[in-house]
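Structure (tokenized):
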């Protein structure tokens, strides 16, 4: 955007006494290549283009957006928003200090591979899934690519800034479906990083897609999972989705500042066992949830939320920080210019512990081992969660035994945190997509293998 247009819009926006103004300009290309039922089922490209304007005065904020980036349109939007306040100007728009983000630059541009080459790459993964068994009735292979450019103009406390950031991401997915006698089971593999086309070479897509198909086929013969309260060993990487949902959301400023989180008044108190340290880290190199700057132009941080079981920090954005008397932690995010930004997770994980995965399994006389999850949900007000484990094994006499059908895990996040009694040293992050007040955003979840001493498992067997 021309700085003169941004200056004109922000100057009008500040006429009536706002003490913070932000103009967020976005241009994002999203591409999907999907093979489904042995055909190219989706080959699409979408442009997201527009700007959002946000004003604050104290603890009141207003927001509007437009896809017309002409000076006339943006000034008109600024007039409508400024009408929400009735004071006198307290800020002037001066020369912008220009800052360019440099994190996570792609080594290989998406355009370096043709569409035909990407389709051929996905077909090899599709063929690897079908080759596992005649019981594989469908094999979906997907490539998701985004290339986004944002400009964030902010005027606050007499400082005018223009942040420019490029955000490139690539994700692959394999979803095999197995069927026999009217029963269906699925497998899944879905890596993603803030990288360009180099990710295609870094992932052994055929091997991992075939493994997902093997799990789907084995689930057809798997017995039902037992139900009841028992020890649960949760695998690394995407196992972290449980912490993300059950404990991450309640630690976001959006919930904390409203007092709707069970952790709102627990800062400095013990909320987890001694072996638990939890972190939201927007600085992870090439992390799926990493960016050079958050969506209000702040540098992301490595924010230790829980240290040795003690709640040490919250995730915070500018607006909720005002409500709490806290500073931003660089965790303000949004799906697009159509959403007002708020506190969101970036790369959230439980830190590595001192045990090994083998020691955790050996120390468990009986329980379930949940390798990965299909997803879940949480009520941030009550912290009650419900998750489905997509690959689950019985642990018996300290050994991993038979695969069982997918159970549900039910409980309260604050209870689970206190019952984590062993944490391994195999920390790994995994890509995910998180939906909340400011839309769907890319986030990483992660953890080492860990054990919860007791959790409610909802299987169908006794």
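Design, position by position:
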């Amino acid at each position: 955007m021309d700085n003169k247009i941004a200056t004109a819009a922000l100057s009008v926006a500040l006429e009536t006494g706002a003490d913070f103004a932000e103009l967020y300009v976005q241009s994002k290309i999203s591409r999907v290549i999907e093979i489904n039922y042995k055909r190219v089922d989706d080959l699409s490209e979408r442009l997201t283009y527009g700007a959002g304007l946000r004003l604050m005065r104290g603890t009141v904020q207003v927001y509007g957006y437009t896809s017309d980036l002409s000076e006339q349109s943006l000034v008109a939007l600024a007039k409508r928003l400024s009408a929400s306040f009735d004071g006198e100007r307290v800020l002037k728009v001066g020369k912008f200090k220009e800052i360019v983000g440099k994190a996570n630059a792609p080594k290989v541009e998406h355009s370096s591979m043709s569409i035909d080459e990407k389709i051929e790459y996905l077909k090899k993964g599709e063929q690897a899934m079908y080759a596992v068994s005649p019981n594989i009735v469908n094999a979906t292979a997907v490539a998701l690519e985004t290339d986004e450019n944002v400009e964030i103009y902010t005027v606050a406390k007499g400082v005018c800034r223009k942040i420019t950031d490029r955000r490139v991401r690539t994700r692959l997915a394999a979803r095999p479906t197995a069927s026999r006698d009217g029963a269906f089971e699925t497998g899944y593999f879905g890596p993603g990083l803030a990288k360009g086309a180099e990710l295609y070479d870094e992932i052994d897509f055929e091997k991992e897609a075939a493994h997902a198909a093997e799990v789907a086929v084995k689930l057809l013969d798997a017995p039902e999972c037992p139900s009841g309260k028992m020890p649960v060993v949760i695998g690394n990487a995407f196992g972290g989705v449980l912490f993300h949902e059950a404990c991450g959301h309640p630690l976001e400023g959006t919930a904390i500042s409203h007092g709707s989180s069970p952790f709102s008044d627990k800062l400095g108190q013990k909320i987890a066992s001694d072996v638990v340290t939890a972190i939201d880290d927007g600085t992870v190199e090439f992390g799926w949830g990493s960016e050079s700057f958050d969506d209000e132009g702040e540098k992301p941080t490595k924010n230790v939320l829980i240290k040795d079981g003690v709640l040490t920090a919250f995730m915070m954005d500018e607006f909720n920080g005002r409500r709490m008397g806290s500073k931003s932690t660089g965790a303000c995010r949004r799906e697009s210019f159509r959403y007002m930004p708020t506190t969101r997770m970036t790369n959230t994980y439980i830190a590595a512990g001192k045990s090994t995965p083998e020691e955790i399994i050996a120390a468990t006389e009986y329980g379930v081992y949940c390798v990965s999850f299909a997803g879940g949900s949480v009520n941030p007000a009550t912290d009650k969660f419900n998750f489905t484990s997509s690959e689950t094994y019985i642990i018996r006499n300290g050994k991993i035994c038979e695969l069982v059908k997918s159970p549900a895990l039910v409980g309260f996040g604050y209870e689970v945190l206190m019952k984590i009694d062993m944490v391994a040293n195999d920390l790994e992050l995994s890509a995910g997509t998180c939906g909340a007040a400011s839309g769907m955003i890319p986030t990483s979840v992660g953890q080492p293998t860990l054990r919860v001493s007791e959790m409610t498992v909802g299987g169908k067997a006794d």
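Reviewer-requested clarification: The longest helix spans residues 205-221. The chain has ten helices and 23 strands.
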